[in-house]
Amino acid sequence: MYARRDLESALSRTKPRFHSRPRAAEPGALTGLHPVREALRARRRALGRLHLDGAPRPEWAELQSLAREAGVRVVEGGEAPSDSADHHPWVWLEAGPLPEVELEALLVQAKSPGATLVALDGIEDPQNLGAIVRVADATGVAGLVLTRRHAPPLSDAVSRASAGAIEWVPVCRVPNLTRALGAMKDAGFWVVGADLEASVDLFQAPDAWLRAPRVLVVGAEGAGLRQGVIQALDHRVRIPMGGRVASLNVSAATAVVLFELLRRDRSMGREHERATPAPPPSRSS
Predict the structure, then answer these.
(1) Considering the chain, what percentage of its residues have pLDDT values greater than 70?
(2) pLDDT digit string (tens) for 139-170?
(3) Apex CA 166: angle with CA 138 and CA 183, to 5°?
(4) Please, is 77 exposed, middle or buried when counting C-beta atoms within 10 Å of its C-beta (0-12, 13-18, 19+)?
(5) Which residues pair with 74 in a beta bridge?
(6) On the chain, which terminus has fewer CB atoms closer than 10 Å, C or N?
(7) What distance in Å separates the CA atoms of residue 20 and residue 40, rounded to the nearest whole number?
(8) 3-state secondary structure of 208
(9) What is the CATH number of the domain that holds 45?
């Protein structure tokens, strides 16, 4: 069992041995109503022009208003992004990369007793990542921890799959997840893994496991959590299954666990504290 120490003092001691250099996604364009709207609302990216194409739609008025507030120029038409999932998007936004945060900063921001971080072990599919981000936002998760390798960039595909939620959930990348989990433990977080082989039923897990800030670790479908990651966990829980199929999609499984954590927090009269996103960068027009 790992001793729990004061958050700030633990961070000051662990920072020299573990440092996460932030990495941002490739610049490009965002397509689709929800990703564009949330990017204009959050203003965490450098934003270029907003493109509206085709016949006017009811949604144009809201987007134009958000663009004016953000100092973004609105143009009609223009060449759509060549790599868009939608070959003829009616709305797209020229956008820079989404900033990512350092692990140390994320841990300081996510320090309330009911705070939850989600760490992903080997989840490489942008659709799964986007779906997990959408659930994370819905349940008040304070941030996501990804690895520099074996995790997708925060692309337009991720933004679309998250319905724009990626604009609001802080993300950091670490070179080694096992070492990062050790730093989280030193900072006072309990580390809980979702594992089909766990002996403890999620719905019967003791509340004592969940009172401190916690990190939920989920692994890739099929492969699950790597052995080194399992050894770094404080506890493992499984979702009880009542059907004939042995497992859930990783985003669905993550949703079950996160909503159970949220339910328990509310039953104890506790609300999540969302980490404060970084201030928006300077705009380009």
Answers:
(1) 80
(2) 999 999 999 988 999 999 999 999 999 999 99
(3) 85
(4) exposed
(5) 50
(6) N
(7) 28
(8) helix
(9) 3.30.1330.30
